[in-house]
Amino acid sequence: MNYFKFFAFLFLCWKGQAQQCDFTLSGKVVDYHDGSILIGAVLSIESQQIYAETDLDGNYTLTGLCPGKIEITVTHPECEVNTFTVTVKDNMNWDFSLEHHTEELTQVTIKGEKFRAETTSSAEESLKTETLENFSGGSLGDALKEVSGVSSLNTGSTVVKPIIQGLHSSRVLIINNGTRMEDQEWGVEHAPNLDINTAANVTVVKGAGALRYGGDAVGGVIVTDPAVAPVKDTLFGKTIFGAMRNGRGTSTTSSLTKAYQSGLHFTGQGTLKYFGDREAPDYVLSNTGNREEDFSVGVGLNKFTYGFEAYYSYYHANIGILRASHIGSVGDLVTAVNANTPNYVQPFTYAIAAPRQDVSHQLAKINVFKRFENAGKLDLTYSFQRNNRQEYDIRRGDDRDKPSLDLELTTHTVNGNFEWNSTPDFTANFGAEGMYQVNFPDPDTGVRRLIPDYKMYTAAGYATLDYNLSHNLVLDAGARYDYINVDAQKYYQNSRWEERGYDVDFGNIIQQRLENQLLANPEFQYNNLSATLGAKYTFSDYLTGRVNLSSASRAPNPAELFSDGLHHSAAIIELGDLRLNKERSYKASVSLEGSAGDFSFGLNPFYNKIDDFIILEPDAIEQTTRGAFPVYEYRQVDAHLYGIDVNAKYRFDAHFDLDGSFSYVNGQDLTRNRPLIDMPAPNWTNTLTYTNAKLNNLTLGLRSQSVFRQTRYPDNDFNVPVLQDNGETIDQTVQISEPPAGYNLFHFTSSIDFKVAEQSNLTLGFYVDNILDTNYREYLNRQRYYVDDLGRNFRIQLKFNY
Amino acid sequence: MKTSKLITLLVVAGALVSSCSDDDNDIPAPVNQEEVITTMNVTLTNPSGEMVALKSYDSDGDGPNAPVVTVSGSLTANTIYSGEIELLNETVSPAENTTLEVMEEANEHQFFYAKSDALNASFAYADTETDYQNDDQNADPVGIAFTFATAEASSGTVSITLIHEPAKDASGVAQGDITNAGGETDFTATFPVTVR
Q1: Which of B8, B11, B16, B17 to probe the A interface (max A CBs under 10 A)?
Q2: Nearest alpha-carbon partner for A752 in A678, A674, A685, A699
Q3: CB of A338 within 8 Å of any CB in chain B?
């Protein structure tokens, strides 16, 4: 489905298809102050000689409109004349709010703002509520795969990280209700700590164009927005219950909103998930159950000229990690890679044992806004986040029930944004942001800290501009400056300190020397500039093009700087590097969206050049008392990524749609002239949908998902001495590089609506994932060495709107 | 007006943020890695009480330094040695005796012995879980105590591996075959041995 976006005082968007000059625009003209109707307001479209006047109820109807942009002049005896540009695509309903008192504001706004584009010229795609609801029992990462060009990096099926055009983790910002998530996103096995059910709309910006949210979005930005409460007296809610065969569990989410005509509103929402072991076609994936308990509450006041919002959300998840993926040595890894079946399979259970993750995230924020006459809107936000991550390993003795990793990350953020929107063809955003973050790794784990104690301060300022050069050309530009200060205190083993050569380069940062370790105080500053420049050109009502150039700078994250130790689950020694510089990306993207009759399409080619791209690759072998381990070291190379996302849709008739999307990424390490690791394989998805509005909105869909084998991968295989059963030690090649075979899966979806009461709807859904119970392994699943991916799954879902 | 109150709140919050950011002086507590095993001491004693010591010592545990292996002397042919294993964590002082933990959790641990084909010798377990855990009903081997029987003079290597959570009931595991054991390697060492 296409969402055509346009930009004026506010961003607006709606769907539809245009044909002739027979469209109708209707609605009310009201006083934005108190919502009282304005009788006798005249709406005129000079170019088409169409006029209308509001009746005694404030209603107007403009008929016979041609598709395309029209200028509507709204006059009222007690108001100033205002002209507004609207793009007509369909019969539409718009309410105009006019400033009733001429001595005050002279602004016209259109209510009903729903899908707001984040940028003018970047490639963007949104997921709307109905799509997100299908993933109510899953995760944000699962839902985002619906967006072409977005794939995921998985650790099993419950830890799902989004990848945007080949990039993930610290390179993808997640903006949750206006706040940048600080949830230790650096780790590849750290999923976003966010309940998908809090979002009513998710927008993916493929690139660094959304500077308001950060200057380091080398990959892109994911913006999740909660539902906007209406300004009227109402009480409504929604409950979604889902049950799944694979995992034998359920998920329930409920939300309730109370809103008043005055603009005051209250919302509450909660989610519970409970799943046991997942199953591959041939065996149980032991210890892959998960639990999740989340809730959020909000209160806000939404007047036209001012308002506030206070919001609190809590996320807690307990996630089992596949027992068979926990290995103690490279010999175990070799055995696992060579075996076709996992070495640990038990009967199905709901119990979750070590290894597991127990993570919680709290977000509290308060936002106030005020609109100023002849100027714009000022937003001030303070947010507080506390993220706690505990990872439990299989341990011995008294440490058995202690986490091996216990990190508490606390973040305070203050930001202010001023949107200048009082000049018709010109909008600007100016903002400043300050952040203070403390990481506290609990020493009680009895395991040397993977991420050290640190304090981080950042300060940033940005300006973005949008300019309507002509009725079909909009230019946008922006720049952002970030100052980052990281002040860490980290213990190094003396032997590691010397092995890294830090005694030579960083001898002056040692704070304290103990018997076999030392405390260092690395402190780093980064000054980052990022910028964006682009244009959106509307060729016709059926074709829109966007071009965007953006540059982003990303400071190395704590894992890249400080990692130091053995990762039991991966059987690797992971080493950060204090000498890393920031990485810089320069990305060009073009996007074209168009339609011709019943056919519509989107095309998004891109090229991303990244200097000092930080990668993690095996480098050497270290001998320990557990045997030999490969050492994975963070290092920097120059790289480029290019590719294309394509989607197309054809409507056969009123009932049948065919929707296809394809994406391709090519990542190359330019320094060593070889492919980049972990690039999504080309993939192609086609969905045939039947809908019948007359039959209770019956929808039936069959989806075919084809993922090709990734043929471009770096050869990171390494040789290690492995002790054989006969007592000999011989060198064995650990084949970790070669991607698994491509696969093709079929999925079935169906849903039907029932009206159960005047204001209540029930939607019943039945889904089958992996219908043929196909055995497959996915290159971007870190457990691919050990087990097959998920087998067939039956899901039912009940959605109740009231 | 509500807005101004909220702005005040923001300012206060901001002040709180900046005020709690000046406690730079506290030093995080050092962590002495638990569960690290730096040292394996294997003593082989012949019937007349003469001992040969095999030792693998890694000064920094899982740090970059490689373990150092030492063997105190050669073994006598056609002799049955009784062997005993001791595991230590010497990154802490006094050193922690990890063997005690293995004994406490004997049902979850097992040592496996292997030798190179050239070496004429054989191993046998000389203990069971019941030796360490009174409540344990299984008499599966643990391997802290074992026997090492030498045959004719030869030389080769002896490898000893401690597996955490092996499948003790899997085929061959109780007889000392590591093939089906699964679990995780907690410690492994290979010693050069000469039988005269």
Answers
A1: B17
A2: A699
A3: no
Distance from CA of B3 to the nearest CA of A (A): 7
Query: In this structure, what token pair is assigned to residue A692?
Result: 């019948």
For range A317-322, the mean pLDDT: 95
What distance in Å separates residue A195's CA from the closest CA in chain B? Answer: 26
Closest CB from A332, A626, A726 relative to B187: A626
Asked if A397 lies within 8 A of B101 by C-beta distance, the reply is yes
CB contact under 8 A, A494 and B60: yes
pLDDT in tens, B114-139: 988 889 999 999 999 988 887 766 78
* Rounded-to-integer distance, Cα A237 and Cα A356, Å: 34
Residue that the structure tokens 């959790």 belong to:
B105
CB < 8 Å from B in window 71-110 of A: none
> For the domain bounded by A225-801, which CATH number is listed?
2.40.170.20
Q: Is 3.40.1650.10 the CATH number for A4-110?
A: no
Alpha carbons A312 and A688: distance in angstroms, whole number: 40
Taking the CA of residue A382 and the nearest CA in chain B, the distance in Å comes to 6
Residues from chain A that touch B164, judged by Cβ atoms under 8 A, are 328, 394, 396
- Cβ distance B14 to A382 less than 8 Å, yes or no, reads yes
For A666-704, how does the pLDDT look when each residue is reduced to its tens digit (9 = 90+)? 999 999 999 999 999 999 999 999 999 999 999 999 999
Sequence letter at residue A164: I
H or E stretch including A530? strand A523-540
| Calpha distance B107→B99 (Å, rounded) | 13
Quick one: average pLDDT of A310-333? 89
Residue A702: CB atoms within 10 A of its CB come to: 16
Max CA distance (Å), chain A = 98
**Pairing relationship of beta strands A656-669 and A627-651 according to DSSP bridges:** antiparallel
Q: How far apart are CA B126 and CA B144, in angstroms?
A: 8
Using the beta-carbon criterion (under 8 Å), do B28 and A626 form an inter-chain contact?
A: no
Select from A395, A455, A723 the Cβ nearest to the Cβ of B188. Answer: A723
Question: Does the beta carbon of A379 lie under 8 angstroms from any beta carbon of chain B?
Answer: no
Nearest by CB to residue B33, choosing from A331, A448, A455, is: A448
Task: Kindly report the average pLDDT of chain A as a whole number.
Answer: 88
CA pseudo-torsion sign A20, A21, A26, A29: positive
- Summarize pLDDT for B14-32 with one digit per residue, the tens: 555 444 444 445 789 988 7
Helices and strands (H, E) in chain A, number of each type: 6, 49
- Asked whether the beta carbons of residue A565 and residue B62 sit closer than 8 angstroms, the reply is yes
Q: Is B64 on the interface with A (CB under 8 A)?
A: yes
Query: Which chain B residues are closer than 8 Å to A397 by Cβ?
Result: 35, 101, 104-105
HEC string of B48-90 equals: CCCEEEEEEECCCCCCCCCCEEEECCCECCCCEEEEEEEEEEC
CA atoms within 13 A on the CB side of A192: 30
Chain A residues whose CB is inside 8 A of the B132 CB are: none
Q: Is B169 on the interface with A (CB under 8 A)?
A: no
pLDDT tens digits, one per residue of A354-392: 899 999 999 999 999 999 888 889 999 999 999 999 999
A115, pLDDT greater than 60: no
Ordered by start, the domain boundaries in chain B are 37-195
**Residue A109: pLDDT above 70?**
no
Residue A518: what pLDDT?
Answer: 94
DSSP B129: G
pLDDT computed for residue A54 by the predictor: 87
Distances (CA, A) of A461 to A415, A466, A775: 10, 17, 50
Complex ipTM tops 0.90: no
Query: Cβ of A519 and B117 within 8 Å?
Result: no
- The structural domains of chain A, with segments of one domain joined by +, span 4-110, 225-801
Going by pLDDT thresholds of 50, 70 and 90, the confidence category of residue B111 is very high
